[in-house]
């Protein structure tokens, strides 16, 4: 079998780093409560502009991942392990925040878990 020698593409690496940075900015703007939809101050307009610049982060990351995965083999086991990891950490962090906030109720948590599974 021929072995393909791959060279590092620094443009792709920079685009991936930029995409991850845009993820952080976007989450800080939206979930962090920086954006205030009730006022149109100069700062808020700058935040809206920054949000519009960063909204492409998911699409950019997906394009980069797809480009890098072309001609590579993948296994179902890796996908299943990834999904199990995502579900585990989603449940753990949600229950942790609910316990920290004092709103942890077992019946409510089980209902949420089975509603989305």
What does this structure look like?
- This protein has five helices and no strands.
- The chain is flat, with a radius of gyration of 20 Å.
- Helix 1 (10-30) packs antiparallel against helix 3.
- It has 117 residues and is mainly alpha-helical.
Brief summary:
The chain has 117 residues and is mainly alpha-helical. It has 5 helices and no strands.
Any key phrases for this structure?
117 residues, mainly alpha, 5 helices, 0% strand, flat
The gyration radius over C-alpha positions equals: 20 Å
Q: Which structural class do the helices and strands define? A: mainly alpha
Strand content: under 5%
Number of strands: 0
Compute the average pLDDT.
83
End-to-end separation in angstroms reads 42 Å
Write the layout of secondary structure elements.
Layout: H1 10-30, H2 42-54, H3 57-69, H4 76-101, H5 106-116
Helix pairs in contact: 1-2, 1-3
């Amino acid at each position: 079998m021929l072995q393909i020698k791959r060279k590092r593409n620094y443009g792709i690496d920079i685009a991936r780093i930029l995409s991850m940075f845009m993820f952080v900015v976007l989450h800080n703007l939206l979930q962090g409560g920086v954006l205030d939809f009730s006022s149109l101050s100069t700062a808020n307009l700058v935040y809206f502009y920054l949000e519009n610049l960063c909204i492409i982060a998911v699409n950019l990351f997906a394009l980069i991942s797809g480009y890098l995965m072309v001609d590579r083999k993948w296994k179902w086991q890796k996908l299943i392990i990834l999904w199990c990891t995502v579900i585990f950490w989603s449940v753990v962090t949600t229950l942790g925040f609910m316990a920290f906030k004092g709103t942890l109720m077992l019946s409510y948590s089980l209902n949420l878990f089975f509603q989305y599974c």
